[in-house]
Amino acid sequence: MAGTDTDGTRGFSCRLLTATAARPGAIAILQLDGDVEPALRAITGIADWPHGRARLVRFADVDRGLAVRLTERVAQLMPHGGPRVVQRLCAWMDRLGIETASCDEVLPELAFPEASDRFEAMALAAVARAASPLAIDLLLDQPRRWRAMTAPDEEDLARSKRLDRLIEPAIVVVTGPVNVGKSTLGNALVGRSMSIATDLPGSTRDYTSGRVELAGIVVDWHDTPGRRDTTDAIEAEAARIADRLVDSADLVIAMTDHETAWAALKRTPDLRVANKCDLAARRDADLSISATDGTGIPELVRAVRDLLVPPEDLKHPGVWVFDDRLT
Ligand SMILES: Nc1nc2c(ncn2[C@@H]2O[C@H](COP(=O)(O)OP(=O)(O)O)[C@@H](O)[C@H]2O)c(=O)[nH]1
Ligand SMILES: [Mg+2]
């Protein structure tokens, strides 16, 4: 019976942790710690929970999946990994009186009891947070590196800041005059209508963004409105917002086309991209692309990835300070 455990009492002295990242995956891992047996009983309808036996169960009327009681006080539920399933299951457990804790609120050793030490527990916690596929192998190799390490040096810290972009997506901003194809490129990468791309100047009002994977690294791609002289107060304010976005970006791409001058920019762009190479070439750019026919887009994707997280950083055998608690 939903909302009541078998003794007829509400509320359980155990809490729920989501051990996998808050994005789609094949399965999600929800961990219960505390007095887990009555909670498991209420969730699955099954009375006895011997340690170490994984069983296929129903999670109320929400989903089916595996459940296992790992120790006296820790159990894991493994429903399907769709965000909606996880959300509904968490909401349902919340109504039962099982509180949800975030991974940052608890010691990594407690959130990951299967880890052999603190380094492994922190690495697993980072894997759960990491947005980019390229982070996974590197994080899983970190416990071995940290066990053999005394203290990270300046170079390790600088490299770690770049590698952190594999966990928390970097901000990439595309800027340039109106009508050069900035929104068309953003839409081509994000794969849906992130911005309105039209012949009408000013149709991107402040900025729009979308999360996109660029050959293994996930970034937040921001499309800004083109700069033009305007008396429209809203458009002027939008331009100011876009300027601040450029200041805070991890990587700035200046874009233009074959017939438009580069826009003046307070900050030196990391990449200068000439679009519409299907119409005409231009020689003063780092890269030439066509957002409409796809020419040069794979090269652009790799260039952005390598500027944000250089291949040397990925290959470097040193430690990555992927968690503040490591220093
Ligand atoms: N021929 C050609 N046209 C393009 C290309 N990229 C964008 N366009 C067109 O240029 C116009 C302006 O594009 P848009 O993306 O809105 O430019 P924005 O103002 O810089 O965002 C639209 O009509 C697009 O279809 C390209 O690579 N080649
Ligand atoms: Mg636009």
What would you say this structure looks like, in words?
A 6-stranded mixed sheet has the order 3-4-5-2-1-6, with helices on one face. Strands 8-9-7-10-11-12 form a 6-stranded mixed sheet. The chain has 11 helices and 12 strands. The longest helix is centred in the last third of the chain and has 16 residues, at 233-248. The chain has 2 domains: 14-111, Gyrase A, domain 2; 170-308, P-loop containing nucleotide triphosphate hydrolases (Rossmann fold), CATH 3.40.50.300. It is α/β, with parallel strands linked by helices. It has helices at residues 36-44, 83-96, 108-111, 118-129, 135-140, 142-147, 154-163, 182-190, 233-248, 297-308, 311-315; strands at 14-18, 30-34, 55-59, 63-69, 74-78, 99-101, 170-175, 208-214, 217-223, 251-256, 271-274, 287-288. Mean pLDDT is 87; it is low at 1-9. Bound molecules: guanosine-5'-diphosphate and magnesium ion. Magnesium ion binds at residues 182-183, 195, 197, 203-204.
Strand order of the largest sheet: 3-4-5-2-1-6
Low-confidence stretches at least 5 residues in length (pLDDT < 50)?
A: 1-9
**Share of β-strand residues:** 15-25%
- Rg over CA atoms, rounded to whole Å, is 25 Å
Query: What value does the average pLDDT take?
Result: 87
β-strand number: 12
Q: By CATH's scheme, which homologous superfamily of the largest domain applies? A: P-loop containing nucleotide triphosphate hydrolases
CATH class of the largest domain: Alpha Beta
- What order do the helices and strands follow? EEHEEEHEHHHHHEHEEHEEEHH
